[in-house]
Amino acid sequence: MEFASNFLHEIIDEDIKNGMTERIHTRFPPEPNGYLHIGSAKAIYINWSIATKYNGLFNLRFDDTNPVREDDEYVQSILQDVEWLTGTKPTGGVFYGSDYFEKCYECAVHLIREGKAYVCDLSADEMREYRGTLTEPGKNSPYRDRSVEENLRLFEEMRNDKYPDGSKTLRAKIDMSSPNMNMRDPAIYRIVHATHHRIGNKWCIYPLYDFAHPIQDAMEHITHSMCSIEFENHRPLYEWVVDNCAPCLPSHPKQREFARLNVTHTVMSKRYLRELVETGKVDGWDDPRMPTLCGLRRRGYTPSSILEFVTRAGVAKTDSLVDIKLLEYCIRDELNNTALRRMAVTEPIKMVITNYPEDKEETFTVTNNPKDEAAGTREVPFTRELWIEKSDFALIPPPKFQRLKPDGEVRLVGAYIVKCNEVIQDEDGNVVELHCTADLESGNGKPIDGRKVRGTIHWVSAKHAIDAELNLYDNLFTLENTAAVPEGKTYLDFLNPESRKVLTGCKLEPSIADVPAGTRMQFVRMGYYIQDSKPTEDGTLRFNRIVSLKDSFKPDKK
């Protein structure tokens, strides 16, 4: 697999040239407090593709240093998503931040012994007050000059459950006047009494991310720690931890940053996604309207289309907002070449072929994919009574209407040319049935007497049709940029009430019943669909529309 070059590759090429490392080793470090989303796909892609490109190793490491929100449910979902997206298990292995709690504690004790860390009794509010501002330096904690012996004792007592939550922290002793706020004696350990999803109540103190992450990277011999751009100002702290804990660590990793993936008409914050789930605004983390990888998978997106989207969106250091239509373009472009074709009538009206015998049945041979000869053909049953699409008939046709109208002709896909002779309407004037005659010499698409029949419509035998319901999806939010919510509003004010539309009473050709679950199909002229992975209560087949058949969106060239 080829990977488009980007600035991170240039950094690695230079590092290899300078002899920094012989083998590239990357990692993806998700926190197991929610499901992965399309933004996570970019981070996975960057780390996995770099390891693949340079014949290196790629680790999955769970950042489980905050037990309050973490759960094994999220662990299992992340394992599934990463393997689904990359097509393989992490080549370097699967690890947990909690694997390194003893090492983090050892490093913290080392810093205390070196006079580079101290136990502080300031509350969270007091720490913020002492921290200063972007224009004013902070001031030293009154506990900053505790002796090494006292700090060692207090830190051990913190570990031994002597103090309540929030009463003490361990802070790195760096520089309270640093222009970088992250270097103003940051907290590196806090007291948290909560049951950890893996290790139970073994620990009541937990390292903070900025302290634990570089230690974990070093323990796994990570060469390049690729982070999103918000961690750029944290890099000096990352390097400070690695440098000052060097005697305890086996390697010296390097952090570099890239811009996050922001997509129109959706949200990427796990806090917001969790709120949507917990308040019932969506039908779970795997709701096909969600930007989660499990939601995209259930909707029918493929790993290759998501990776293509990430590639086209680009890897840079500058934040940008990527049009969600690019994601739709990528799956549409793929499915146009690979999806099976099947006929489905979404809003049916009955067509009766009056000159076709009631007891006669025949089949017509129809191609499975005109772009793929290897896909072969199938036999579709034809009977006197058919279902056609409501929108394929117009009692009073608009200009240039090329489908069926009174006294007009169309060809049925792969079958006969038919002419509409009579329109049956109900008492409200709604068209409920069409009586037509077929040119029985025109079967299998044969041309007749040089006549030009411009319209071709799809159809399903009424006798053999399968009943189904279809889910049609639209953007979850009406606001293009959900990071720019107008004052006085919240992102929830822009939930799209039309984001899901359910069509019931749909009629599908019978061969769809034989298509394996998970197969992506083009319902001819209607869009691309996949059978929903969650069954309906009454057993009715349900299909999710992956994407519409066409769109005017034109992507930039690669």
From TrEMBL:
It comes from Butyricicoccus porcorum. The keyword Ligase applies. This is Glutamine--tRNA ligase. Its EC number is 6.1.1.18. GO terms for molecular function: ATP binding; glutamine-tRNA ligase activity. Pfam families: tRNA-synt_1c, tRNA-synt_1c_C, tRNA-synt_1c_C2. It is an enzyme of class 6 (ligase). Residues 339-439 form the Glutamyl/glutaminyl-tRNA synthetase class Ib anti-codon binding domain. Belongs to the class-I aminoacyl-tRNA synthetase family. GO terms for cellular component: cytosol.
